[in-house]
Design a protein that fits this description.
The structure holds two protein chains of two kinds.
Chain A lengths: L1 E8 L2 E8 L4 H8 L18 E4 L2 E4 L12 E3 L12 H9 L8 H14 L5 H7 L11 H17 L2
Parallel strand pairs in A: 1-5
Antiparallel strand pairs in A: 1-2, 3-4, 3-5
Chain B lengths: L4 E3 L4 H11 L3 E4 L5 H6 L7 E4 L9 E3 L5 E4 L4 H6 L1 H6 L1 H8 L4 H4 L4 H7 L6 H7 L3 E6 L2 E6 H4 E3 L2 E2 L6 E7 L6 E8 L10 E9 L4 H4 L10 H6 L10 E8 L6 E2 L1 H9 L3 H14 L10 H25 L9
The chains are: A alpha+beta, B alpha+beta.
The structure holds flavin-adenine dinucleotide and FE2/S2 (inorganic) cluster (2 copies).
């Protein structure tokens, strides 16, 4: 059965007809063609599908499409504004925190949420926050460096 | 995923009627972090999924008139772990909820779903056993309350009857002088499902035992704890202990012999003996995650760590016991 949902994605309102048994991940990738949201495992394990739902990170592979009715969603495509990258994105580029890039969108979204609730996280807090984001390439060290650098850059701008 | 319909019921009676009519074709949904994995894996093929999250009170944490803490079944792990009353008074439960999976998953996974799913490894369960939670269900015959140890009936089995669903988890009030510790082992330090887990809880006095007149012997505890005691007399403080074991039996298990032994003797030798008794209370199996022998051995280790950390919490700063991690 199909449901009509109204929701906001990256600041833009949408009204869509979605199948009950489809996930938010499928809707974002297949109906809205936001392919920055990755499908790694469809089982809540890898974090590649992480998006912000009402400001908090969730695994979009475990959210049913009709559950997104009324929600505000942010995907990696929504992090940059007016061609200006988010400080986290800048830091990932500068630190070389991306290799194949498959995990990067989910890690950026989850790190954005971390810095929103904790502008000055310790190494341990970064590791704990990112435990649900698997990266098969980088070994994580540069990712953690990048999150710290972004936190630092952000505090410089808005102390 | 196999197609199914998604229904949001308007009230409790409608939800119950839908579940009653549907049998196994109809499944309740909270966070979906267990349910959707099982649907996707083809283990279950529901025709209807009933989303219970929007029913009144399901996402609320409130203090009842009798002083109990009532946690709506659909409260997420992050919501429970971060709630000020949980952190101040039931910090053991906060530790357990915070140990589940990843931050993102904890934004969806609920405490109610964790219990209804009834995995022996459900991480909130040992804490809820220690806190002697009472589960509240709504069904065709109205509201029913089930003590947590009767709610878990076997691996993936709970005490709910056809048409019934969990609405909330009720926690009895705790004395201000109380503390708990949850320790679990996974393949990784954090974020993995439990191979085995142990929750330990101690509180001043003996709420239930006193009525039965069982609390005869004064507590003998190590020096640090005794000096921190309330101070009426040297050995006035009697602690009630509760220990619950996860992922080492068909359901979570209490370890009553270990609890009684600790109430008599919480010296280092007493703690070692109680840890051994806790291991004997476990009923572990061999499976892909660990052998029964390993699990039993680790119950003793985690019990000892838990008891020692509770003693330290109670001894170090009695005025903030239960308030600080
Ligand atoms: C990657 C991953 C990691 C995980 N790690 C952990 C972990 O470390 N520790 C842990 O304990 N668990 C873990 N889990 C399991 C799961 O996340 C938890 O058990 C979670 O708390 C389930 O809650 P939920 O709200 O998602 O339940 P749901 O999936 O919505 O429901 C669980 C079950 O209960 C039934 N149900 C739901 N609501 C009700 C109700 N009100 N009344 C009656 N029945 C109901 C459903 O039909 C289903 O069978 C993990 C899962 C995943 C995918
Ligand atoms: S695709 Fe959702 S967690 Fe892997
Ligand atoms: S950069 Fe390849 S998975 Fe992380």
């Amino acid at each position: 059965m199909n449901h009509t949902i109204h929701f906001t994605v990256n600041g833009e309102p949408f009204t869509l007809s979605v199948a009950s048994h489809h996930t938010l991940l499928q809707v974002l990738r297949e109906q809205l063609v936001l392919t920055g949201v990755k499908n790694g495992c469809e089982a809540g394990e890898c974090g590649a599908c992480t998006v912000l739902m009402n400001g908090e990170p969730v695994n979009s592979c475990l959210v049913l499409a009709p559950e997104a009715d009324g929600a505000t969603i942010v995907t990696v495509e929504g992090l940059a504004h007016d061609s200006q990258l988010d400080p986290l994105q800048e830091a990932f580029v500068a630190a070389g925190a991306t290799q194949c890039g498959f995990c990067t969108p989910g890690i950026l979204i989850n790190s954005r949420a971390l810095l929103d609730r904790n502008p000055d996280p310790t190494d341990a807090e970064i590791r704990a926050a990112l435990v649900g984001n698997l990266c098969r390439c980088t070994g994580y060290i540069r990712i953690i460096d990048a999150v710290k650098a972004a936190a630092h850059a952000q505090r410089e701008v808005q102390p | 995923m196999q197609p199914f319909d998604y229904i949001v019921p308007h009230n409790f009676a409608e939800a119950s009627a839908l579940l009653m009519a549907g049998n196994d074709d109809t499944r309740p949904l909270l966070g979906g972090t267990d349910l959707l994995i099982r649907v996707r894996g083809g283990f279950i093929r529901p025709e209807r999924i009933i989303d219970l999250k929007q029913l009144p009170g399901m996402c609320d944490i409130v203090r009842s008139a009798e002083g109990w803490l009532v946690i709506g079944a659909a409260c997420t792990m992050n919501q429970v772990a971060g709630h000020p009353l949980v952190r101040q008074e039931y910090e053991l439960l906060a530790q357990a909820c915070e140990s589940v999976a990843s931050y993102q998953l904890r934004n969806r996974a609920t405490v109610g779903g964790n219990c209804c799913n009834a995995s022996p490894a459900a991480d909130s369960a040992p804490a809820l056993y220690c806190l002697e939670a009472v589960m509240e269900a709504y069904g065709p015959s109205g509201v029913r309350r089930i003590p947590i140890h009767e709610f878990f009936t076997g691996p993936r089995c709970n005490a709910l009857r056809p048409g019934e669903f969990l609405t909330g988890i009720h926690l009895p009030p705790v004395p201000s002088r109380s503390a708990g510790a949850f320790n679990k082992l996974g393949r990784t330090k954090i974020g993995d499902i439990s191979i085995v887990s142990v929750a330990v809880w101690a509180e001043a006095g003996s709420r239930k035992l006193e009525a039965g007149g069982q609390s005869k012997h004064p507590e003998r505890v190590d020096g640090a704890t005794r000096t921190a005691a309330d101070g009426q007399s040297k050995d006035a403080e009697r602690l009630t202990w509760r220990i619950a074991i996860g992922a080492a039996g068909p359901t979570p298990l209490r370890a009553p012999e270990a609890e009684a032994a600790l109430a008599e003797d919480a010296s280092p030798e007493g703690v070692a003996r109680a840890a051994q008794l806790a291991a004997e209370a476990a009923r572990p199996i061999d499976d892909i995650r660990a052998s029964a022998a390993y699990r039993r051995g680790m119950v003793a280790v985690l019990a000892r760590r838990g008891v020692n950390s509770v003693l330290a919490r109670l001894g170090a700063a009695p005025s903030v016991v239960g308030g600080q991690p």
